[in-house]
Write a structure and sequence with these properties.
The chain is mainly alpha-helical. It has a domain of 80 residues. The chain contains six helices and no strands. Helix 1 packs across helix 2 and helix 3 runs antiparallel to helix 4.
Length: 173
């Protein structure tokens, strides 16, 4: 049994090495593309940065994210716009680069601390798990039969299954 365990650990190490080499090769290829097509890369980065900036604003408006997290994210994106003015030449000691690095660290800290305190679907407790109360059938069937909702995702899937998929009949040999 020890040999199989040893082979399993060796396989995991080999897989991690191959994954690391694959990611490095992909990043090298992307760096070559950016170096070759700097004008297009600058436009793509500008549009991605603009989309991220818009997402921060929309998350603040519609999802009530904390203002400190949104402001640090917006300031990080604005400092990325400052870095893009001299693209592809980036100096690591300019105030724009240092500010963007600082705002990214602050933003990630605020985001991690916010999402740890917010209940998420990954945390399971007694309030979100189905109960063991069974009347007819299993818990899921009981739950859906109690609901008097005529329109929903399950109804849509059942309708699509009934109308789109062919009916199979079992052949009795």
């Amino acid at each position: 049994m020890w040999f199989l365990t040893l082979v399993s650990y060796l396989a995991i190490v080999v897989q991690l090495i191959f994954i690391t080499i694959s990611i490095a090769a992909g990043l090298y290829y992307l760096a070559e593309l950016i170096e070759e097509y700097t004008t297009i890369a600058k436009k793509v980065i500008w549009w991605m940065n603009s989309a991220t900036l818009l997402l921060y604003i929309l998350l603040w408006i519609f999802e009530n994210f904390p203002a400190s997290m949104v402001i640090s994210g917006v300031l990080a994106q604005c400092s990325h716009f400052v870095i893009l003015t001299n693209f592809p030449f980036v100096s690591f000691l300019t105030p724009g680069f240092l500010a963007s690095a600082a705002f990214i660290v602050i933003n990630h800290y605020l985001a991690f601390s916010y999402f740890v305190c917010v209940p998420s679907f990954l945390r399971a407790n007694d309030n979100v798990l189905p109960t063991t109360e069974r009347i007819d059938g299993d818990v899921v069937t009981n739950y859906f039969s109690k609901r008097n909702k005529k329109y929903g995702l399950l109804t849509f899937f059942n309708y699509a299954k009934d109308t789109l998929l062919p009916v199979r009949t079992k052949k009795g040999f």
